[in-house]
């Protein structure tokens, strides 16, 4: 909904969103797939759902509208992976739509060792548990985006164990990420031989190898 997930893959400013284009044209039915789907680095197909103005309506509606539009127009044909970059806000049901409608198979929670990030990760696990019991979606694991807090790796591994899951990868903090962002690139494109690029390749391989090994989470109760 923030429309900032694909810009580095497209080497551009934020792309036009499904909801913005629908508002301009009149409705979603007035859109064509090529209006909203743009192809970026290495042939990655990109779509941004968008959302309403802050304080107006439920941003999760954009997720629902977009997925339905993409399904009806064959966007999911001939792709190896489908990734949803969804806000970690399980209060609004729309954000849980890929989980609720069995559109997603595995959920990976991106977190850090900061207290509120750990709290949010546990909350998301509670949301996954609600839908995992009656469906096929599973928690794939945690991905820790290092913030360089004390004992961060230990905390991430401990939370993963508490959630009946595992830490898929600990991504170290590196300023090369900001250098790439300033040039509207991903790290893989900007510095393919860097250590940070190697970290992301390792992460991708671990997600690939983890297919079908997800678990039903056991959130911590307060």
UniProtKB/TrEMBL annotation:
Annotated family: Belongs to the NifH/BchL/ChlL family.
Gene Ontology terms, MF aspect: 4 iron, 4 sulfur cluster binding; ATP binding; metal ion binding; oxidoreductase activity
Keyword Metal-binding in annotation: yes
Keyword tRNA-binding carried by entry: no
Ranges in a coiled coil: none
Descriptive protein name: Nitrogenase iron protein
Cofactor(s) recorded in Swiss-Prot or TrEMBL: [4Fe-4S] cluster
Annotated organism of origin: Rhizobium leguminosarum
Source organism superkingdom: Bacteria
UniProt keyword list: 4Fe-4S, ATP-binding, Iron, Iron-sulfur, Metal-binding, Nucleotide-binding, Oxidoreductase
Pfam families reported for this sequence: Fer4_NifH
């Amino acid at each position: 909904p923030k429309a900032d997930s694909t810009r580095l893959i497209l080497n551009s400013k934020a792309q036009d969103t499904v909801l913005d284009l629908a508002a301009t044209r009149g409705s979603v039915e007035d859109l064509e797939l090529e209006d909203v789907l743009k192809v970026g680095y290495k042939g990655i197909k990109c779509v941004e759902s968008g959302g309403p103005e802050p304080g107006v309506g439920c941003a999760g509606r954009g997720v629902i509208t977009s997925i339905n539009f993409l399904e009806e127009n064959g966007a999911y044909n001939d792709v190896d992976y489908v990734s949803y970059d969804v806000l970690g806000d399980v209060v609004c049901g729309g954000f849980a739509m890929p989980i609720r409608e069995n559109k997603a198979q595995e959920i990976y929670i991106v977190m850090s060792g900061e207290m509120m990030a750990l709290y949010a990760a546990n909350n998301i696990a509670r949301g996954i548990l609600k839908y995992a019991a009656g469906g096929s979606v599973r928690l794939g694991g945690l991905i820790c985006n290092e913030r360089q807090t004390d004992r961060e790796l230990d905390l991430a591994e401990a939370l993963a164990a508490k959630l009946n899951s595992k830490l898929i990868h600990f991504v170290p903090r590196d300023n090369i990420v900001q250098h790439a962002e300033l040039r509207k690139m991903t790290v893989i494109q900007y510095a393919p031989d860097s250590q940070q690029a190697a970290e992301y390749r390792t992460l991708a391989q671990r997600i690939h190898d983890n297919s079908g090994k997800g678990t039903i989470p056991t959130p911590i109760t307060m």
